[in-house]
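Entry 14. Structure prediction run on the chain below.
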Amino acid sequence: MALTPFEIRDHLDGDRARPEYERAHRRIHAAFYMDPGTREVIDWSARADQEAGLVLRGFTEAAALPHAAGAQLPVATIGCFPSSLWVGARAARTWMVTAVSVAPTHRRRGLLRSMLGPELAEAQRRGTRSRR
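Output returned:
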């Protein structure tokens, strides 16, 4: 099946988590063997992530899992947000990377590389520098 890229910038529908945010939230928590929490916890996370400016990206695949019933489920995710990091006495702008996951069924296909490259380019575009 074909993979479809996704990007989520708007996490809320009113004060509830949007369905696509909830699916990504559940994928991320499954990757780290964590309970995604109740609907209220997911709504709270969506509000916090929205306020932080978190951008969730990744890939979905229709019916990637037997119980999916044709839904577009995330099989890989990466989350990034603007922040700052104190270096000595001053704050340096950063583009933080979090929530990186690839479903076991989709590993070794280059998904992580294809997600991380654009995030590094975004960091550079925003003026964040990396050292090699």
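The longest strand covers residues 72-87.
Filed with the rest of this week's runs.
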